[in-house]
Amino acid sequence: MRAPAEPVIDTSPSPGDEVKTTTCYMCACRCGIKVWLKDGQIRYLQGNPEHPVNRGVLCAKGSAGIMQHYSPARLDKPLLRVGERGSGEFREISWDEALDLATSWLKPIRERNPDELAFFTGRDQSQALTGWWAQQFGTVNYAAHGGFCSVNMAAGGLYTLGGSFWEFGEPDWEHSQYLMLWGVAEDHDSNPIKLGLGQLKARGAKIVAVNPVRSGYGAIADEWIGIRPGTDGLFAFALIHELLKADRIDLDYLVRYTNAHWLVVRNPGGADDGLFARDAQGRALCWDRDASASKNTPPQPSPSLREKEGAQALADGIGISPAVVGEYVLEDGRRTVPAFHLLAERYLDPQYSPDAVSERCGIPADTIRRIARELAEAAFDRSFSLPIAWTDAWGREHADMPGRPVSMHAMRGISAHSNGFHTCRALHLLQLLLGAVDTPGSFRYQPPFPKPIPPPNRPGKSRQANGVLDAAPLGFVHGPEDLVVDAQGQPRRIDHAFSWAYPLSAHGMMHTVIRNAWAGDPYRIDTLMMFMANMSWNSAMNTTQTIGWLTDKGADGEYRIPRIIYADAYASEMVAYADLVLPDTTYLERFDAISLLDRPISDADGAADAIRHPVLDPAKQREGRDVRGFQSVLIELGARVGLPGLLNEDGSAKYNDYADYIVRHERAPGVGLLAGWRGERGELEAKGQPNPEQLQRYIDNGGFWRSEVPEHARYFKMANRGYLDWAQRMGFMGHADPVVLQLYSETMQKFRLAAQGHGAQQPPAEHRERVATYFDPLPIWYEPFEGAQIDDIDARYPLSAVTQRPMFMYHAWGSQNAWLRQITTRNYLYLHPDTGARYGIGEEDWITVTSHQGTITVQARFAGNVQPDTVWTWNAIGKRRGAWRLSKDAPEGSKGFLLNHLISDITPKGDYANADPVTGQAAWFDLRVRIAKADAAAESAATSEPQFAPLAMGSADNRPLRYGAGFRENSRKNSNRKDP
Fold first, then answer.
1. Cα dist. 759→264, 489, 751, 756 in Å?
2. Which DSSP state fits 352?
3. Dihedral of CA 468/471/473/477: which sign?
4. TM segments (predicted)?
5. SS3 208
6. CA atoms within 13 A on the CB side of 95
7. Reduced to 3 states, what is the DSSP secondary structure of residue 92?
8. DSSP 234
9. For 868, which DSSP code?
10. For residue 965, what pLDDT band results from cuts at 50, 70 and 90?
11. Is the bond preceding residue 917 a cis peptide, omega within 30 degrees?
12. Residue 629 and residue 68: Cα distance in Å, rounded?
């Protein structure tokens, strides 16, 4: 009798018949992914275990990239508006017609006045190209999304540490024993943070989350501190107060690596007051307590100044014993005090004691004192050393690397306030006092950081003979002389960035461009060109007003913003307001450079960059679809317009497309967008002539390149000779000088002096008080503008309202994704149960939420994970009906909502943008509201308000989505086939 045949079971089925590696684009994390294909379609997305960013981990967003690529909202062809703006009435046109039309608009602008083009880009991750293109065009009116996203974080760090939180640094996940997360949501850098938190939890390190809302990372923290929005800086100052009072600070670190001992001139009313004392060669001075006093030292000019032991010396000298407190008279008679003296004077003031700040922050004073003790205990009582020899920038050899196992990470929750710049600086000050910047166990720089302070690149403001700007439009202001203003001190940029109103606006001010272009302030523009920026909806400070500005017409019947060119891959809300729409590819159909010149993907132990490359041919994805990557379109447009950097000497186009530009473009000799496999044969890294095979080498290596920082150079990067020399060889720094960390900012003091009437460049009268107040060289805290001004006018807005980014979606494009929508299809306003009881609101009641700007109607839910004086919701879930080709009855449109309807783009007083006065960052989280139960009509309607007329953006097939069913059907057919 024959034994029954055993079925053949494939226990390791392949996800597809082909696999390609590239870089994810479902958030800013930029993880490596494997794209499994079957029959030319995506079968499966998997994390790439070889990739340095995520090491194989992939989140819900990344996995759902399949549905992003196959989204029904994809645009198919260039569109030309035929109806009114906002109607969604377009006709499809060819690329030749679209590019001819765009060229006919742009070429006369460049010949006439390049500043009449405002070119503003969203989360494109290709600013190394777009900023350079704007420079070639000659317009000062270029900005990227960082102005409403993270410029406080970047500027606060770069003007203090030469690096910053966000994407320029990370906690020492391997050695930290105490981590504080400040205002961290779950969007940026999410997979590396999750991996790192897992390491900390496994090791028993303590995690403290400071946030008004407890979600995501905060939910797994050992302690949640539900702080009142906008008071993080005040909390930090109370911690600093306690550390100073207890003398639990690292003075040795401060003197070695910061300007704590640099002498500051005390000359009230003088042009040098508050500046650093320097010698004739401009070198900073300190007071060496062990040196012999010079015979030329004049008598002390005041009996209050007793004779001091020691003498002035160079602050970067070796073998000195610098004073950090006291008042000293220099050889030339100038009176001075060390920077640390000013710091101690300020923060030891009782106004910063835990008892003084407790009620405002919403944190018990005893908790503040305990956290300060825990920080000190972790930093000093649990200190350790790594047995790694290294040499510092002054040639001194060290046998080991002493550590401070306290680390911090911060994000938008602290920066998106009108006091955010100073709050970011306050956190860095706290880190420095603990000796916890780039030491083992603390916050660590990621190459190419640290940079000199401030970074050397200043914003462009004048045009050369060929019309090209003298520098890129964005950069770092070193003093009033770098502002982009006219002879009267008025702004020259349409967004008012780098003006006396917002001097250090390093990323520009994207959130102000539409209002200012509509108002003609400071002048009329001709064309607004935008890429991947949903400015008519969730990226608008105030959605209703922005729609009005985009559609408003002058007395002549013409639009006040004459022309709008918009590029996007999807039928977003903003598409409806464009005159010309350029359809972009999905991220799986194009080349991208994740460049060290832009937003790097390095970690603290290695420099890294990456590419995206077409794993699918856009021409074969849907019948009739004809789309092009915006970067390639921009390069062709530049050549058509005649931009010098995009033409050969004979006038022909210099680059075929973006891929060709990535390989052959050099920002400086030997420096291009990608650092890997440079040189004729790919034998060089970081610097070397272009390699024609460079992109293929990236593709063969999983889409990325990484270079290890030498082991002896991985800590103390700001003053480690090994790192500084390595960074110079790699092209990250123009010199190998140490970076002195800035407790006290002379850049800020230069602006204050200008406001006090000193120097060749001074602010107009209307800005003097503002500049003098907010350009304090030491971090300060002040009530966020909306709260302060509302309380002066109307105290009936007692609650703060903030948005959180969910871990499973990213900005607007996440909630059009079919798989991610199954997680959340609408949002609620979440409030603490005690808050609901206080206002007579029940679970799932419809309520009104009112700010000084307007009112929305939404549905409420109770959540114990929120500070009781704060309400919150998920960001960007709400959609405008008809957008993204969602069903007209989709809950995102009928019940979803935005807080943006309540946010004003100007302060309640109407004097400035609703933004930080130092950097111009949008103050999204300053919003103050009141809530009340809605009336019976609203309850019965069960629809969020306001509602707008649906957009005519087309509709998707309403049949149930069964992606993958075809693969299964084919698999069944194949398995049932009989052998011949």
1. 18, 13, 10, 9
2. G
3. negative
4. none
5. strand
6. 15
7. strand
8. H
9. T
10. confident
11. no
12. 16
Measured distance CA(888)–CA(583) in Å, rounded: 23
Q: Which one-letter amino acid corresponds to residue 91?
A: R
CB-CB contact of 504 with 919 (8 Å): yes
What pairs with residue 802 in β-bridges? 872
| Helix (H) / strand (E) containing 755 | helix 746-755
Candidates 322, 85, 288, 369; CA nearest to 952 is: 85
Q: Give the separation between CA 63 and CA 24, rounded to whole angstroms.
A: 9
| Closest of 232, 251, 221, 238 to residue 375, by C-alpha | 238
Distance, in Å, from the CA atom of 107 to the CA atom of 99, rounded to the nearest integer, reads 12
User: Chain centroid to CA 82: how far?
Assistant: 37
Distance CA 337, CA 23 (A): 52
Say yes or no to pLDDT of 167 above 90. Answer: no
Does an H or E element contain 207, and which? strand 206-210
DSSP secondary structure code for residue 5 in this structure: P
Please tell me the predicted confidence (pLDDT) of residue 2.
67
The residue among 465, 464, 463, 528 whose CA lies nearest residue 492 is: 463
Q: Are 852 and 790 in contact (CB under 8 A)?
A: yes
Q: Say how far apart CA 316 and CA 293 lie, in whole Å.
A: 18
**CB contact at 8 A, 414 and 183:** yes
Q: How far apart are CA 368 and CA 417, in angstroms?
A: 22
Sheet of strand 206-210: strand arrangement = 223-225, 206-210, 178-182, 406-410
Render pLDDT for 635-674 as a digit per residue (tens, 0 to 9).
Answer: 999 999 999 999 999 999 999 999 999 999 999 999 999 9
Strand 335-338 to strand 263-265: parallel, antiparallel, or no bridges (unpaired)? antiparallel
Q: Is 767 helix (H, G, I), strand (E, B) or coil?
A: helix
Q: Is the pLDDT assigned to residue 195 strictly greater than 90?
A: yes
Q: State if pTM tops 0.85.
A: yes
> 248-291: per-residue pLDDT in tens?
999 999 999 999 999 999 999 999 999 999 999 999 999 999 98
Check: CB of residue 576 under 8 Å from CB of residue 536: yes
The residue ranking higher by pLDDT, 307 or 534, is: 534
Instruction: Please determine, for residue 587, whether its predicted confidence score (pLDDT) is greater than 70.
Output: yes
Mean pLDDT of the chain: 93
- Secondary structure (3-state) at 193: helix
* Residue keyed to tokens 């034998």: 683
In whole angstroms, what is the distance from residue 282 CA to residue 331 CA?
15
Per residue, what are the HEC states of 780-826? Answer: CCCCCHHHHHHHHHCCCCCEEEEEECCCCCCHHHHCCCHHHHCCCCC
Would you state the structure tokens that stand for residue 902, as one six-digit string? Answer: 């309540």
Distance CA 358, CA 881 (A): 44
Q: Which amino acid is at 352?
A: Y
Q: What confidence category does residue 885 fall into, taking pLDDT thresholds of 50, 70 and 90?
A: very high
Banded model confidence at residue 304, pLDDT cuts 50, 70, 90: very low
Spatial contact of 627 and 569, defined as CB atoms under 8 Å apart: yes
CB atoms within 10 A of CB 348: 13
Backbone Cα Rg of the chain = 29
Q: Using CB atoms within 10 Å of the CB of residue 31, give its burial: 0 to 12 exposed, 13 to 18 middle, 19+ buried.
A: buried
Cα distance between residue 125 and residue 606, in whole Å: 20
Beta bridge partners of 41: 38
- In sequence order, what are the residues at sequence separation of 6 or more whose Cβ sits closer than 8 angstroms to the Cβ of residue 176? 200, 205, 405, 406, 407, 441, 442
C-alpha–C-alpha distance, residues 329 and 740, integer Å: 24
What is the full DSSP assignment across 19-58? EEEEE--SSTT--EEEEEEETTEEEEEEE-TT-TTTTT--
Rounded-to-integer distance, Cα 883 and Cα 570, Å: 9
Task: Please list the alpha-helical segments (H only) found in 377-486.
Answer: 412-415, 420-433
* β-strand partners of 119: 142, 529
Instruction: Determine how many CB atoms are found less than 10 A away from the CB of residue 215.
Output: 21
